[in-house]
Amino acid sequence: MPNRTFTAVLHREGEWYVAECPEVGTVSQGKNIDEALANLKEATELYLEEFPIPECERPLLTTFEAACG
User: How much is the pTM?
Assistant: First the structure.
């Protein structure tokens, strides 16, 4: 299987870091960032073995500000 680069979005929930891959929809967690990323990589690879995705352009990732309060 060829390598592709995916996006990982992480946030903290209590004592855990939650990692999500928006291109595929996989989610995992870990007690630290490195563990959460390693678990997300494993979950994504297992998902892609079962549900391969076609080659496509990488999505545009940006940020924006919004009033909150």
Answer: 0.83
48 φ, ψ to 5°?
-70, -25
What phi, psi does 18 have (nearest 5°)? Answer: -105, 130
CA 53, 59, 63, 68 torsion: positive or negative? Answer: negative
Q: For residue 22, which phi and psi values (nearest 5 degrees)?
A: -65, -25
User: Is-contact 35 17, C-beta < 8 A?
Assistant: yes
Q: For 2-61, what is each residue's pLDDT tens digit?
A: 788 899 999 999 999 999 999 899 999 999 999 999 999 999 999 999 999 877 667 777
Q: Which CATH number fits domain 1-69: 3.30.70.260, 3.30.160.250, 3.40.50.2300, 2.60.40.10?
A: 3.30.160.250
